[in-house]
């Protein structure tokens, strides 16, 4: 059926987007590890509420997603 083919195409597009998101999240996590190393060397606190709030403001409807991302990043920084 025609709608099944269209659905498959859309799902492939979603798969491509998901792959990109995962790639970007991996890059972000690597940077967080490096930031954590710098913070430890300089005795800077891991948590930066001002920075977190800035990110969450930009996140809009994805705020809960970014809360989880921030949480994972803080774990990596430790």
Structure commentary:
The chain has a single domain (2-77), classed as Chorismate Mutase Domain, subunit A, CATH 1.20.59.10. Helices cover 86% and strands 0% of the residues. It is built from 3 helices and no strands. The model has no long low-confidence stretch (mean pLDDT 95).
Summarize the structure.
By secondary structure, the protein is an all-alpha fold. It contains 3 helices and no strands.
Could you outline the blueprint of secondary structure elements for this entry?
Layout: H1 2-42, H2 49-59, H3 63-77
Helix pairs in contact: 1-3, 2-3
Tally the beta strands: 0
Taking pLDDT < 50 over at least 5 consecutive residues as the criterion, the unreliable ranges are: none
**Architecture per CATH nomenclature, i.e. the level-2 architecture:** Up-down Bundle
- State the end-to-end CA separation: 52 Å
Amount of beta strand:
under 5%
**What order do the helices and strands follow?**
HHH
Give the name of the CATH superfamily.
Chorismate mutase
């Amino acid at each position: 059926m025609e709608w099944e083919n269209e659905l498959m195409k859309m799902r492939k597009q979603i798969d491509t987007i998901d792959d990109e998101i995962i790639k970007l999240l991996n890059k972000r996590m690597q940077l967080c590890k490096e930031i954590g190393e710098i913070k430890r060397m300089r005795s800077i606190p891991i948590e930066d509420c001002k920075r977190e709030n800035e990110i969450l403001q930009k996140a809009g409807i994805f705020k809960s997603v970014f809360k989880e991302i921030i949480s994972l990043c803080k774990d990596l920084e430790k």
